[in-house]
Amino acid sequence: MTEPRYLNDIKGKFPGTEAVLPEKIKDGIPAFDCPPSLILDIVKYLKAEGFNYLMNLCATDYKDTFEVIYHLSALESKAKITLKVKINREKPELASITPLHPGANWQEREAFDLLGVVFTGHPNLTRILLSCDWEGYPLRKDYSRKPDQYD
């Protein structure tokens, strides 16, 4: 069985993008580590290849870096792909994919609200779960709440 064209194209067209080792792929879904500067181009390419549904976008804190993870699906062919983007913890910025996938809107806002990831170009990057006057980002490993914060 040959690999779908989009897998070879991602490896060849986007410098710095690396396939995740097969033994680390969950449920047979191809995954790629992507440079932050290419995420918008890669998502745009994948959308043109039929990956028209953003299943999920999440972010996590690994103490020394953040990682934003995208799960995309092609509804017609039922193909799935995962993109992983490591970003600088000191300046956690990444291009918004909301213009390409409107469903990313609230998911990017959640990552901003809880971890402080700034999605540049987002149409309304404001808190979505916490109050507007909340200080800090509670899902960061170094977060320390104030005693009266929940009162």
Mean pLDDT, nearest integer?
Answer: 88
Pick out the low-confidence regions.
none
Quantity of strands, as a count: 7
CATH superfamily of the domain at 5-96: NADH:ubiquinone oxidoreductase Nqo5 subunit
CATH topology type of the domain at 5-96 = Beta Polymerase, domain 2
Strand order of the largest sheet: 1-2-5-4-3
The multimeric state of the shown protein is: single chain
The CATH class designation of the domain at 5-96 is Alpha Beta
The dominant shape is elongated
SSE pattern, N- to C-terminal: HEEHEEEEHE
Described by strand count, sense and barrel closure, the largest sheet is: 5 strands, mixed
CATH architecture of the domain at 5-96: 2-Layer Sandwich
Separation of the first and last Cα atoms: 59 Å
Please state the CA-atom Rg, rounded to the nearest Å: 17 Å
How large is the share of residues in beta strands? 25-35%
Key structural traits:
Beta Polymerase, domain 2, 7 strands, alpha/beta, 151 residues, two-stranded parallel sheet
Structure commentary:
The protein is of the alpha/beta class and 151 residues long. The chain has a domain at 5-96: Beta Polymerase, domain 2 (2-Layer Sandwich). Helix content is 21%, strand content 25%. The chain has three helices and seven strands. Helix 3 (104-115) links the parallel strand 6 (93-95) and strand 7. It is elongated, with a radius of gyration of 17 Å. The protein starts with a helix and ends in a 31-residue tail after the last strand. The mean pLDDT is 88.
